[in-house]
Amino acid sequence: MKCVLSTFILVAGAWHGRWCWEKLTPLLEKKSHRVITPELAGMNGDQAELPLDPLSNWADQIAEISREQADPVVLVGHSRAGLVISEVAERVPDKLGVLVYLSAYLLKNGQTLYEVAQRAENAAGFAAAVEFRDDGTARFKQEYLAELLYNDASDEDREIASQSLVLEPTASFTTPVRLTNDKFGRIPKAFVECAWDNAIPPALQQAMQEASRVDIRYRLESGHSPFFSAPMDLMDALEGIATQLNL
Description:
The protein is of the alpha/beta class. The protein has a single domain, classed as Rossmann fold. Helices cover 36% and strands 17% of the residues. Helix 3 links the parallel strand 3 and strand 4. It is globular.
């Protein structure tokens, strides 16, 4: 039994901010874990703050927070944030205990989110839910929220999300990740698969796991946003990952 409590850094996915972790955070904190939920630059709704090179900027931001921690971090990325945590590994590999991909994009060096998402069975349907704007941002259309992002969430949580989602810089979808075996490649990886996910279908989640080395796998009976619909199950999965690696 480990005696040192874990430090979790939770990184939100596209269109989301730190608000999405508000159910999960107190559950982990009640178990005496430390939980950090950074707001990625520009994802607070202030479009003027969106970086031109979001993946690099966001990875630098999370890397700096990771450097400040005394113990190896359990770094969790949801959906698009899978790219962010992979890039963080290139910056501070010695500060990370594990990379946790929560129904997230686990890419190989040189791949883009857009490239991999096009392989999904729902690629055309998901593209219809996104409005790509002339200013270099993308908006998720409200009428698709329940179907794709929150199919098993409560009406209350859907309403919170509908009022909270912000614009996403389209560069986060088209910028390739730059990863190496001696940094990103040596960090343990866990994948938390969401079995009812309509945004990143289970078949694509499984294909990404098979294409890369994944050390620990969990499966949740949930949609794309278990921080809303299954926070207790998600907490158990994250705790289980940390315990297996003695973090």
